Amino acid sequence: MFGPLKPVRRFYHRVFTQDKELVRAVAGITGTTPDNVRLYKLALTHTSFVRQTPDSKNETNERLEFLGDAILGSVVAEYLFKKFPYEDEGFLTEIRSRIVNRESLNHIALKIGLNLLVRVDTSNQSMRHKSVNGNALEALVGAVYLDKGYETTRRFILNKLVKPYVDMHQLVNTTSNFKSKLIEWAQSRNLDIRFEIVKRKQQGNTTEFTSEVYIDDKPIAVGVGLSKKKADQAAAEKSLVFLKIA
Predict the structure, then answer these.
(1) Which of 65, 88, 89, 138 is catalytic?
(2) Which CATH architecture describes the domain 5-173?
């Protein structure tokens, strides 16, 4: 009589177990136990994982990513404003940009193990994009904000992301305009140098640019960014490392 219920029980047991594992993992990362598990599932669901339908965007982390980006920028801006009371707006903007840029967020996401939780379509190699983890981190910030409020989110960002994984001393003392430094180096040696956007890739509402540096028509390095300027800077930074320019 009760036989047909067994598969249903197994199904709910599996879902409940998965939820408990997710709650444990998120609590370990954020330092706070989730209340609304659905928000965190959404934050960790990449658009490639959901079958594309007119309503599918509401089932992915894109909206939470938008919110998290704003909250993250706000918290970091306040932190820098208080930490560097005598620096001007240009300095604060530059340091904030370098903390919350895609490469930095991807790095932090890997450090905290977020890549192990993100649901992404791994069958399509083109979807294994390195921005997936950084985007998920922004979405996670958005989920924490909606679930726990601003103050808890602020503590999560500063105590679990920025302070453990951002070397502020190195960040402040590293030359930020890599492109200018590389151009000056090339010109001082009468070398021809050019930056060329070799690829544009649409990711949801954003476009990712790939820039390549050529010196005397020889390709040196490539860089990726969400603007042409950032892609050039990333390519220049890698070129400086490759050429061993201090």
Answers:
(1) 138
(2) Orthogonal Bundle (1.10)
